[in-house]
Design goal:
Elements (H helix, E strand, L loop, with lengths): L9 H11 L4 E5 L2 E4 H17 L7 E5 L4 H12 L3 E4 L6 H11 L3 E4 L4 H5 L8 E4 L16 E2 H5 L15 E6 L9 E5 H14 L7 E4 L6 H13 L2 E4 L6 H4 L1 H6 L8 H10 L1 H8 L4 E4 L6 H10 L4 E8 L2 E8 L12 E2 L4 E6 L2 E2 L6 E6 L6 E2 L3 H7 E2 L2 E10 L5 E6 L4 E3 L2 E3 L1 H8 L5 E10 L7 E9 L7 H11 L8 E4 L13 H7 L3
Parallel strand pairs: 1-11, 3-4, 3-5, 5-6, 6-7, 10-11, 12-13, 26-27
Antiparallel strand pairs: 1-2, 8-9, 9-19, 13-14, 14-15, 16-17, 16-18, 18-21, 20-21, 21-22, 23-24, 25-26
Length: 518
């Protein structure tokens, strides 16, 4: 049921679902619903319009939409026409929008009308085709010289053009990594990359056409988008909401639509348990399963979650944009592996390397991934591609280990390791300790050059507090001495307003090193 789809394109799988489930609701959003038959017709119509406007196989198409039916329709129409989908974050800045459109050499661009102000401030490349959901009331906001098409008007057309045959080897999408270092990189992924990634998750979670998912995950990230691909390939249903800012409005939708799944990052469930416990109990127990990703779920938090949702299956997975959903674990079945991110998914090989030497079980090293899910590389970055690929696969930059049963444990980032007089310090260990100090809300630890001393690097701990007041430095240092080896105790403690993080919740230590000096 799942593996027999691995060699198909997303386009073929969508058509199979449309043929089999034509009158079934495929997607929902705040505006309404659309059946498989209607959705496929919209995809075919928009794809035909693209081809009529000159889109060639392999051309990149940029688009900016919130989570919505329109977003998914544009994405599928691009790949149906043979183009490469370039989903752009809904909250992107004009500067980064300009970069991604120029970097991909996109000639086609579509966007939601809520972005007219942003578009007017963006240094846009020369475009051959532009479409939006609605024209601005003030025409002066439009920077375009050519006609701007309206999506709903395109959907009303009935003309169908000859569309190219799409295979699993076709490039399907470029996704730009948010990164912890700053330089945006376009990750190139084929239909096979995306289908195998999605089906591996669907198989482990035993998703069928009877399932219905409520998702608030950003669809410009593979965690969210893989679920769209999987559900639409299986004839299941999905509702997309913009975000989880108002849980009191989002969680009741579980009951309203009969949702069986609600995926999100671990911190989202921590917030629900801490701030909306009654809502979580009332609606969360109607789910069949939840899947978490982007970071391992803390052991004590998982146990707490099971007191709220005792009968809901809980999964967590690990992956990057470059190799999404490379591992998965059902935590309920592996109570002794709660800090693991799971075993490799179908077709994936995980190696732990020290330099170029493969490490034995339980030894730490760089996590290296190989298999059908792994990207072919970064767009127009040949030197970076040489750096990240080796004989064993893709170097993730993550520090981890495999136990005797092949369960993967992520222990940090190689670039984040701090060198204190030749002794290696993992900042995550210090962060976990400091989070146990009363009143500390969040922590980020980074290494800074020790230009006046002999430490190579000195450890600095940045923290936020619940009451926005500084903590006594001596008390913080004494607390660390009680819980850490002496060389791991930070030299400096700095309270800041907010810990800089990527969209997926990873600490951006490079921003701290750029903004501060000690």
């Amino acid at each position: 049921m799942y593996k027999n789809k691995h060699n198909e394109s997303l386009v073929t799988l969508l058509k199979q679902s449309a043929d089999k489930y034509s009158d079934k609701i495929a997607l929902r959003d705040v505006k309404g619903t659309i059946t498989y038959k209607e959705f496929f017709q919209h995809v075919e119509t928009l794809a035909s319009f693209f081809v009529d406007q000159g889109l060639q196989v392999g051309d990149r198409v940029g688009f900016v939409f919130p989570n919505s039916i329109d977003y998914v329709t544009v994405h599928y129409a691009v790949i149906r026409a043979g183009g490469v989908s370039v989903p752009i974050d809904n909250f992107i800045t004009p500067r980064n929008l300009s970069f991604q459109l120029k970097d991909t050499e996109a000639k086609f661009f579509l966007f939601h009308s809520e972005h007219w102000d942003k578009i007017s401030e963006t240094d846009l490349p020369q475009l051959d085709f532009v479409a939006t959901t609605k024209l601005p009331k003030d025409n002066s906001k439009s920077p375009f010289q050519q006609d701007v098409f309206i999506l709903d008007e395109i959907f009303q057309q009935s003309k169908q053009s000859d569309l190219p045959e799409i295979t699993s080897g076709n490039r399907a999408i470029f996704l730009y990594t948010t990164g912890t270092t700053g330089r945006q990189k376009g990750v190139m992924l084929t239909h096979r990359n995306l289908v195998v990634s999605a089906m591996n998750i669907m198989e482990t979670c035993e998703v069928t056409d009877a399932d219905c998912e409520l998702t608030a995950l950003p669809q410009t990230r593979l965690f969210g988008l893989a679920h769209v691909h999987g559900y639409l390939s299986l004839g299941a249903s999905m509702m997309l909401v913009r975000n989880l800012i108002l849980p009191q409005k989002v969680l009741p939708l579980i009951e309203e639509i009969g949702a069986t799944s609600f995926p999100h990052v671990p911190t989202a469930f921590y917030t629900l348990m801490d701030t909306y416990p009654n809502l979580l109990k009332q609606y969360g127990n109607q789910l069949r399963y939840i899947l978490m990703c982007s970071a391992p779920c803390k052991e004590e938090r998982y146990k707490q979650l099971k007191t709220f949702l005792p009968d809901v299956r809980v999964f967590t997975s690990y992956g990057l944009t470059e190799a999404a959903r490379s591992t998965i674990i059902e935590l309920d079945k592996h109570p002794s592996k709660l800090t693991s991110v799971g075993q490799s998914t179908y077709g994936m090989t995980i190696s732990i390397l020290d330099g170029n030497k493969v490490q034995p079980a339980n030894a730490e090293g760089e996590v290296v991934l190989q298999g059908d899910i792994v990207t072919s590389g970064y767009w127009k970055l040949p030197e970076e591609n040489k750096r990240v690929f080796c004989d064993h696969g893709f170097r993730t930059g993550d520090l981890g280990k495999l136990d005797d049963e092949g369960f993967l444990y992520i222990v940090g980032r190689i670039k984040d390791i701090i060198n204190v007089s030749g002794l290696k310090v993992n900042p995550m260990e210090i962060e976990e300790v400091l989070k146990g100090f009363p009143g500390i809300e969040d922590v980020a630890v980074a290494g800074f050059p020790d230009e006046k001393g002999s430490l190579n690097e000195k450890i600095v701990a940045f923290y936020t507090t619940e009451d926005e007041k500084e903590k006594d430095v001596k008390a913080l240092r004494d607390f660390c001495y009680q819980n850490l080896e002496k060389f791991k105790v930070p030299v400096h403690f700095e309270r800041i307003q907010e810990i800089p993080k990527t969209v997926s919740g990873k600490i951006q230590r490079v921003k701290l090193r750029e903004a501060y000096s000690f």
